[in-house]
Amino acid sequence: MTLTRFAHNGIRVPTTHIILNNKLLLSEDCLKKIRELHNTFYPVEIDANMTTEEKLPHMVEWWNNSHKLLIQQKIRKDLLFQAVTESNVMLRDGYKAFFDHLYEQRVPLLVFSAGIGDVLEEVMRQNHVFHPNIHVVSNYMDFDDTGVLQAFEGQLIHTFNKGEVAVSQTAGLKQMQGRPNVLLLGDSLGDLTMADGVAEPQNILTIGFLNDQVEERKKSYVNSFDIVLVEDETMDVPNVILRNILTLRDDK
């Protein structure tokens, strides 16, 4: 819900997990259980009256239970393309300029996603923006030799542990070396820690997309992000900032 839209014409746009809610991949019973998990835990994720520490065990339970259900369905890797194609997932308006500009200027784009990396990559691939400068840190599926889901790889990534993951998985990346300036985009307060893996940061400009429960969460977002975009389904502001930064650099 940062690179992708939150909604379109009043209808929620699916996350990478929800994209898999396709009868091609999941049984009716599994779909019902996944909806029940979402209805139970999503209100906790966005609850303005709970601390991050209070939310953590609930997020771990939600993600673990969701992944167990997906594994039980023995999802086939070759069906992910079709699941993305048949979904109504949409990247934010202006996404192509955002992705292409960063690629053309050789600026690394690190994507920290609590979703499913295989699905996110396919979304970017189908929109023709999965460029070589992109490095995705996410929950990746582990398929057996026949292409059937058998597990999820590595450390679980949920909404509120991205800082911990950022430190462990990005500190040694070559594309991070000598780059102390960060434009950080996120839709959750948990996203504010994504730059924790940057060595000796000099400038970090944070932009928060406030998509849901606006009035309840506006104060905490304004107090935490440098810029808050309310129900904005575009990349207009990040694109303007990028253009200005890169123009100033080119003029030197």
Automatic annotation (TrEMBL):
<keyword id="KW-0963">Cytoplasm</keyword>
<keyword id="KW-0378">Hydrolase</keyword>
<dbReference type="GO" id="GO:0000287">
    <property type="term" value="F:magnesium ion binding"/>
</dbReference>
<dbReference type="InterPro" id="IPR006434">
    <property type="entry name" value="Pyrimidine_nucleotidase_eu"/>
</dbReference>
<keyword id="KW-0460">Magnesium</keyword>
<dbReference type="Pfam" id="PF05822">
    <property type="entry name" value="UMPH-1"/>
</dbReference>
<dbReference type="InterPro" id="IPR023214">
    <property type="entry name" value="HAD_sf"/>
</dbReference>
<keyword id="KW-0547">Nucleotide-binding</keyword>
<protein>
    <recommendedName>
        <fullName>5'-nucleotidase</fullName>
        <ecNumber>3.1.3.5</ecNumber>
    </recommendedName>
</protein>
<dbReference type="GO" id="GO:0000166">
    <property type="term" value="F:nucleotide binding"/>
</dbReference>
<keyword id="KW-0546">Nucleotide metabolism</keyword>
<dbReference type="GO" id="GO:0009117">
    <property type="term" value="P:nucleotide metabolic process"/>
</dbReference>
<keyword id="KW-0479">Metal-binding</keyword>
<dbReference type="GO" id="GO:0005737">
    <property type="term" value="C:cytoplasm"/>
</dbReference>
<comment type="function">
    <text>Specifically hydrolyzes 7-methylguanosine monophosphate (m(7)GMP) to 7-methylguanosine and inorganic phosphate. The specific activity for m(7)GMP may protect cells against undesired salvage of m(7)GMP and its incorporation into nucleic acids. Also has weak activity for CMP. UMP and purine nucleotides are poor substrates.</text>
</comment>
<comment type="similarity">
    <text>Belongs to the pyrimidine 5'-nucleotidase family.</text>
</comment>
<comment type="subunit">
    <text>Monomer.</text>
</comment>
<dbReference type="GO" id="GO:0008253">
    <property type="term" value="F:5'-nucleotidase activity"/>
</dbReference>
<dbReference type="InterPro" id="IPR036412">
    <property type="entry name" value="HAD-like_sf"/>
</dbReference>
